Amino acid sequence: MSEPHPGSLAPDEPTAGGILAAARAARGLSVAEVAQRLKFATRQIEALESERYDALPSPPFVRGMVRAYAKLLEIDAAPLIGSLDRKLRTVSIEVQPPAMSVPFPADRSSGSRVYVLLSMLIVVAVTVVLAEWFIRSQRVAAPQEVAATAPGPATSSTVAPLVSPAPVAATEPVAATEPVPAPSAAAPPPDASSAPSGGVAPAPRPGTAPATAPVAAPALQGRAQVVLNFDDESWVEIRDASGEVIYSGISRPGTRRVIQGAAPMSIVIGNAVGVRLTYNNATVDLAPHTRVDVARLTLE
Fold first, then answer.
1. What is the pTM of this model?
2. pLDDT attached to residue 110
3. N or C: at which end does the chain have fewer Cβ atoms within 10 angstroms?
4. How far apart are CA 242 and CA 94, in angstroms?
5. What does the alpha-carbon distance between residue 22 and residue 221 come to, in Å, rounded to a whole number?
């Protein structure tokens, strides 16, 4: 004979838990075997048999356990349910579900709001940094954009002075000026075979003196001189009448450049406010030709 289960009532006052415990013991089943067959925890079977309903989730859950337990033991569940209901009303127990640890925040909406706010702050910060970088680099980028769109063989990466037949002086205009031979009355008349390819030398008329103009005079026609004085660092590109780039480069403050070539001359100057330009000994105002610190003009 099995020992009475702790918590079972006297025979004259049977309870659902006591009846189920006695029937289980009569069939030779252990609490663990019942728990395995009913798919409940062993502690839940022990709580049901000992009438500790506060250790179980809720009254409907307890009723379901009683029905399943009675079906396993092949006994009538109706009297057990009636006894259980009377016990629950008498004790007036308040069953609370067991605490469950949740691995994620209960309020997802607050987490979403924080995520959206952080994302907006990051976007604003990136936008401010990009805008500041664009404003600071606008002055430096403007001359390179001009070089990229200018016609001819020059490219935006050209920054060094190009080799050209036109002489370029770094600081002194005297070194860049081509010497012109002085006319001489004793010079022999020019011969037609030695005339330059750009024109035909006039033949002397009978009874007149030979022409006193030097032979190189036709080649000097249309020549012009540009003098640039740099008060600030600036980028300059100059093209002659043929569209060929005769000068392209960056000059530091205090530099003076003298460039000679065939007119008209097309000039592009970056950071024009820091450059003073003289064309054929005449000062040229760059302000009317300047847009966004870049001056573009053609000198006849």
1. 0.30
2. 65
3. N
4. 102
5. 130
